[in-house]
Amino acid sequence: MLRTVRVNPQTSTKDLQHDLAADGVTVHRSTIWRTLHKEMLYRRKRKPFLRPHHKQSCLRAVHARKPTNLNQLEMFCKEDWSKIPSATIQTLIRSYKKHVEAVISAKGGSTKY
Questions:
Q1: Contact 18/2 with Cβ under 8 angstroms?
Q2: Number of H helices, E strands in the chain
Q3: CA 36 to CA 13: how far, in whole Å?
Q4: Stretch 22-51: mean pLDDT, rounded?
Q5: Which residue has the higher pLDDT, 42 or 112?
Q6: What's the rounded Cα separation, in Å, for the pair 6 and 91?
Q7: Average pLDDT, stretch 88-105?
Q8: Number of Cα atoms under 13 Å in the Cβ half of residue 2
Q9: How many angstroms separate the CA atoms of 6 and 2, rounded?
Q10: If you average pLDDT over residues 27-33, what whole number do you get?
C-alpha cells in the first residue's frame, strides 16, 4: 500500500481500499488514512494552480494569436506578461515570504495557501 502511494501520490484511500479488497483484505478507509498520515504520505488535495476555465482561456488566447513557432510563442508570452500591472506583481512578491514560511512551518505539508 505504501509503495503504491509513493509511486502515485494522487492515489485515493478509496482506490487503496479497492486494491486491498482485490487481494482479499478488508480495511476501513480511516485505517488507511491513519497509516498514510503516520508515514507522512497523506495530504489533503491541493487546488490546481490553474483551474480548468483558466487553462481554457489561456489556450484560447494562444490559439487566437496563432504562433507559428516557439520564438513567436515566447514573444507573445512576454508581451502578455508585460501587460500585468506592476501593483499585482508587487502584491505577489510581498506575499511570497508568508507563503514560504507557511510551507516551512507545515514541514512541506498542506497550507491554507
A1: no
A2: 6, 0
A3: 9
A4: 73
A5: 112
A6: 36
A7: 85
A8: 8
A9: 6
A10: 82
* Residue owning grid cell 514560504: 100
What nine digits make up the cell of 84?
A: 500585468
Give me 13's grid cell.
484511500
Q: Mean pLDDT for the chain?
A: 79
Q: If you search the block for the grid coordinates 479488497, which residue do you land on?
A: 21
Distance CA 100, CA 34 (A): 27
C-alpha cell at 30: 480511516
Q: How far apart (Å, rounded) are the C-alpha atoms in residues 19 and 1? A: 9
| DSSP one-letter code for 84 | S
* Residue 76: Cβ within 10 Å count: 16
Furthest CA-CA distance within the chain: 59
Q: What is the pLDDT of residues 60-70, one digit of tens each?
A: 877 888 889 98
**Beta strands in 28-68, from DSSP E residues, in sequence order:** none
